[in-house]
């Protein structure tokens, strides 16, 4: 628990006080279908990614996280903080430039709004940097959901989650966060509870819906990854 408290303290410094999700408990109920539908809306006909639906997808996932208990708060707070930064850009005076990830990248790069190196720049929370953090987490999600989809009744969510994390997001986290995340994974509920919280129906229905969700999430990830790679944005500090 020590690691979790330290990590929560570490995170709280960067978490904004205005939370994105402030509705009542019923509005907070998670539905995998809702998340899937939102990620489907993310991609335009010409493969642009809508920021509005991207953050809405993450909001849905945060609902899931919040239903797992307080031990995961330090993780969901960070996601909420990053969602809020992007929502603020979308609702701000330059909002028209933040409609898609492609237009955001173009706008921020053309106007020198991204700190590309560690040396104290004046845009520590650019849209590009913020979205990159969620983008890396999306890879974890893709790997985790694929493991969940192909899992068997006795598979452990903690192991699937840790394996997906070690294969992706952990490479971008310092030791303390890795340890705290590792401890949080140990108290994840089992596969039956996970499936129940998804509000889809029986295990077969969950697996079928995951079969739709994973390629969709994969596509959003791939488009973003290519865009960031083309613009040398994959390592923004
Ligand atoms: C379909 C249902 C099943 C899956 C539901 C998953 C629900 C996931 C919801 C939220 C995921 C959290 C996303 C976390 C974003 C992390 C972004 C990040 O890397 N932030 C770090 C870097 O930020 P800066 O300091 O550079 O601004 C930050 O330091 C990290 C802080 C918190 C720790 C993040 C640990 C991530 C573990 C991800 C696995 C979550 C396990 C949940 C299991 C349901």
Structure report:
The protein has one domain: Orthogonal Bundle (Glycolipid transfer protein, GLTP), CATH 1.10.3520.10. Helices cover 62% and strands 0% of the residues. It is built from ten helices and no strands. The protein has helices spanning 2-12, 32-42, 51-66, 73-91, 101-110, 127-149, 157-166, 175-186, 191-197, 203-230. Helix 2 (32-42) packs antiparallel against helix 3 (51-66). It starts with a helix and ends in a 7-residue tail after the last helix. Residues 1-26 have low confidence and may be disordered. The structure holds the ligand CCCCCCCC/C=C\CCCCCCCC(=O)N[C@@H](COP(=O)(O)O)[C@H](O)/C=C/CCCCCCCCCCCCC. Residues 11, 14, 32, 61-62, 64-65, 74-76, 78-79, 133, 136-137, 140-141, 161, 165, 169, 172, 177, 181, 188, 198 line the site of the ligand CCCCCCCC/C=C\CCCCCCCC(=O)N[C@@H](COP(=O)(O)O)[C@H](O)/C=C/CCCCCCCCCCCCC. Ligand LTTT4AJV binds next to helix 3, helix 4, helix 6, helix 7 and helix 8.
What is this structure's SSE topology?
Elements lengths: L1 H11 L19 H11 L8 H16 L6 H19 L9 H10 L16 H23 L7 H10 L8 H12 L4 H7 L5 H28 L7
Helix pairs in contact: 1-4, 1-8, 2-3, 2-10, 3-4, 4-6, 6-7, 6-10, 7-8
Keywords: Cell membrane, Cytoplasm, Endosome, Golgi apparatus, Lipid transport, Lipid-binding, Membrane, Nucleus, Transport
Organism: Muraenolepis orangiensis (Patagonian moray cod)
Catalytic activity: N-(hexadecanoyl)-sphing-4-enine-1-phosphate(in) = N-(hexadecanoyl)-sphing-4-enine-1-phosphate(out); N-(9Z-octadecenoyl)-sphing-4-enine-1-phosphate(in) = N-(9Z-octadecenoyl)-sphing-4-enine-1-phosphate(out)
């Amino acid at each position: 628990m020590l690691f979790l408290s330290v990590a929560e303290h570490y995170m709280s410094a960067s978490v904004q006080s205005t939370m994105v999700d402030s509705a009542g408990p019923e509005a907070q109920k998670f539905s995998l279908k809702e998340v899937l539908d939102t990620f489907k809306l993310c991609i335009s006909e010409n493969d642009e990614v809508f920021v509005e639906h991207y953050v809405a997808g993450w909001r849905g996932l945060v609902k899931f996280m919040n239903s797992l208990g307080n031990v995961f708060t330090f993780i969901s707070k960070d996601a909420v903080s990053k969602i809020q930064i992007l929502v603020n850009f979308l609702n701000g005076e330059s909002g028209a430039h933040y409609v898609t990830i492609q237009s955001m990248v173009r706008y921020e790069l053309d106007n020198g709004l991204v700190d590309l190196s560690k040396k104290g720049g004046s845009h520590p929370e650019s849209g590009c940097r913020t979205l990159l953090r969620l983008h890396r987490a999306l890879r974890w999600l893709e790997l985790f959901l694929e493991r969940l989809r192909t899992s068997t009744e006795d598979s452990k969510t903690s192991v699937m989650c840790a394996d997906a994390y070690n294969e992706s997001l952990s490479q971008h986290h310092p030791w303390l966060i890795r340890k705290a995340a590792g401890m949080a994974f140990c108290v994840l509920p089992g596969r039956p509870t996970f499936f129940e919280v998804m509000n889809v129906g029986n295990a077969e229905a969950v697996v079928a819906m995951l079969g739709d969700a994973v390629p969709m999430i994969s596509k959003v990830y791939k488009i973003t990854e290519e865009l960031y790679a083309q613009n040398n944005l994959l390592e923004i500090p």
